Amino acid sequence: MIAFDYSYQNIPNTTIEERFKVKFKPITRPLKTWKEELLISAKNISDSTSKQLYVIMSGGIDSEQVARLYLELGIKFKALTVVYDNEINSHDIHRAVKFCNDNKIEQVRVPLNPETFYNEGINRYIEQGYRSTNIYHYLQLFIIEKLEELGGFGVGGAGEQVYYNIDNQLHLKINPHYTLGMDFCKNNNLQHNFWMNLSTPEIYAAYTKIDLVDFLLQRPEYFLGKYPDSVEKMLVYSEQWPMMERRGKNTGFERIEMTIRQPKQKKLKAMFPDLVDLYYPVSKMKQDLGI
Amino acid sequence: MSNLVNFEYSYDNGLNIKFKPVQRELNSWYEEMNLLPKMVSDSTDRPIYICFSGGIDSEAIIKTFIKTNTTFKVLIVRHTTETNIGDFKFATAFCKNNNIEPIIVDLDPDWFFTEGIKKYIEQGYKAVRIFRYFQLFLMETVESLGGCAVIGSGEQVYCNIGGDIHINMDQGHTMSLDWCKNNNVIHYPYYLMYNPEVYASYMKLDLIDFLLQRPSYFTNHKDNMSTEKIMLYHRYWPEMLRRNKLHGYEKMMLLKNRVEADLRSKFPEIVPTFFPISKIKQELNYE
User: Fold this and answer.
1) Beta carbons within 8 Å of B188's beta carbon, 6+ residues apart
2) Nearest CA to CA, how far is B242 from chain A (Å)?
3) Are the beta carbons of A215 and B220 separated by less than 8 Å?
């Protein structure tokens, strides 16, 4: 369950807007605060399954946000963390390890050799028709399979809003491969929710109503950067969860960015040239959401 | 040496600071930043060495020197232990792209932070953060090159104490200013605090003004990080590459923690002092 409906048809000689149809669902009730909406969604997700809940924890603030929601709700969960061989993502996951230790959360650590997986392991998914130009999405599929082996239900903090200034108008970037994990679940009749921040239109809408986000949405000049990122999210999180340690924005790929990620993604882009980014106007998103 | 920064200070029952008042009508912060290179250049006959860590503060400063056609050199410190390899690569690549020939200085951080700092401590320089001693190393290095050092420190990091926003400083902050005074030399270890105008104009930026009215955004202040500054820098220098907020010690945190614990026990009198923003604004007297 996510906040937008989508469809993708790979028709040659068409624009991305023609191939990839996205429409946000309208909110269905008066909005609560963003955090209240997250708590409602977290509870609903937990209620939707009888399986063991696993929060996918990378060490980043999004996954810690999800863990903190469940702690606040008093809902028990385990954590699942992918540990790359040779401590390649140790700079990222050490916070997840500490968080779990501090909060007495059982953490299942899944080892992965990133070189083998990203260079060869993902071919299995590609052969099944799962197409992405971002290797991170194949990691999501790997995690889903691991969760199935464990008999668990995965929850993650993906779905952040990253704004882009194009001609002084703010846009969201949505790539068709963004929905890879959702498609994988659908095709295999599985239930997981890695997209907490996108899980309901109310969460998405309530985020734009946060005073700081609202302030920035009226000032596109803050999003002129050539390398967009959601820095404002860090401020929002630290306001909502003051105990959350501030940290650099890590992807976990820092130590294999040049050696594995970029070369592989270059190949994937050549393999799937139709998977380009769709820039969705924030004004249209708001209109769809009905706010 | 108080003309090196925008505040007067003294040690009387701890650190006392008084910000100097703004002397003229404020320009925008971006304009004030671009006025600084000429002011610094006019203040010394020596070549200016911008100490480039690879971080956004020093990058922004270099950009202002380039924009204003002010002559400068760049000094980059390379850890012999490769603990700052990411920052170092970024800094050298940036210089190459901008046709700057940097001076590269090697430093063994393991030795410096355990043994090298003892020299300064024996001379009476007290701090509980190893970065403060690193500032002395930078200034001493630039001094040996016959230059004037510009270090991109002095950012405004806000913290919420009891519902009021404060800026945290301690005696270690002014150690580098004492060093300049004792050695009768001019360097700028707190370039972002160069004058009251650049400091005050930062507070007048729409985003900062917005946040200063909302202390809840600064309740978590343990990590000494100014997230909003990152947003501002990318607003004014959109071409600036986004990168992780690094302090250069990521790969030597155990050493840093151990040395700083030793320093805290050695200098228990050095404790954080929180200066209320309302008082700073009053002293800057810009409204």
Assistant:
1) B4, B40, B148, B149, B150, B151, B194
2) 6
3) no
Q: What is the DSSP letter of A260?
A: I
* Cβ separation B207–A215 shorter than 8 A: yes
Distance from CA of A250 to the nearest CA of B (A): 7
Residue A246 to residue B225, Cβ atoms within 8 A: yes
Q: Do A246 and B227 touch (CB under 8 A)?
A: yes
Q: B73, B50 in Cβ contact below 8 A?
A: yes
Q: Which of B86, B220, B241 sits opposite A238 (nearest CB)?
A: B220
Query: Which residues are CB-contacts of B273 (< 8 A; sequence separation ≥ 6)?
Result: B14, B15, B17, B168, B169, B170
Structural domain spans, chain B: 2-284
Cα separation, A6 vs A196, in Å, equals 17
B244 Cβ contact partners less than 8 Å away, ≥ 6 residues apart: A248, A249, A250, A254
A84-111 pLDDT per residue, tens: 998 888 878 889 999 999 999 999 999 9
Residue A162 burial (C-beta neighbours within 10 Å; 0-12, 13-18, 19+): middle
Domains of chain A listed by start with CATH number: 4-289 (3.40.50.620)
Q: Are B70 and B63 a contacting pair, CB within 8 Å? A: no
How far apart (Å, rounded) are the C-alpha atoms in residues B226 and A246?
10
Which class is B2-284 in CATH? Answer: alpha beta
Residues sharing a CB contact under 8 Å with residue B275, sequence separation 6 or more, in sequence order: B17, B166, B167, B168, B169
ipTM of predicted assembly, 2 dp: 0.87
Q: Which of A221, A228, A241 sits opposite B235 (nearest CB)?
A: A221
Task: Report which secondary-structure segment, H or E, holds B50.
Answer: strand B48-51
- A interface with B, Cβ–Cβ < 8 A, is 91, 211-212, 215-216, 219, 221-222, 224-229, 231-232, 234-235, 238-239, 241-250, 254
Q: Which residues pair with A78 in a beta bridge?
A: A54
pLDDT above 90 covers a percentage of chain B that reads 79
Among A96-105, A115-124, A221-230, A266-275, which is the least confidently predicted range?
A: A221-230
- Contact criterion met (CB below 8 Å) for B187 and B142: yes
Question: How far does B67 lie from chain A, in Å, by closest CA?
Answer: 18
Q: What percent of chain A has pLDDT over 90?
A: 84
Containing A207, the helix (H) or strand (E) segment is helix A201-209
A160 alpha-carbon distance from chain centroid: 6
Write out the DSSP string of B61-119.
HHHHHHHTT---EEEEEEETT-TTHHHHHHHHHHHHHTT---EEEEE-HHHIIIIIHHH
